[in-house]
Amino acid sequence: MPKKKPVAGKPEVHKDLEGLDFKINTFGEIKSNMDLDKLNDFLNENVKDKKLNKESKD
Known about the structure:
Layout: E1 22-24, E2 30-32, H1 36-46
Antiparallel strand pairs: 1-2
């Protein structure tokens, strides 16, 4: 199977997430350059929660 070629350039992102960068340090901690509260607010506004969907049948 052929190997995938690396994609050139930067990916397209939402204007509110410009410059978002995650890094994992040697202890396995996730470090971000954006405040997590700001990131959570963005996700709450723009992503639908599948568990809260009224059509789901459990």
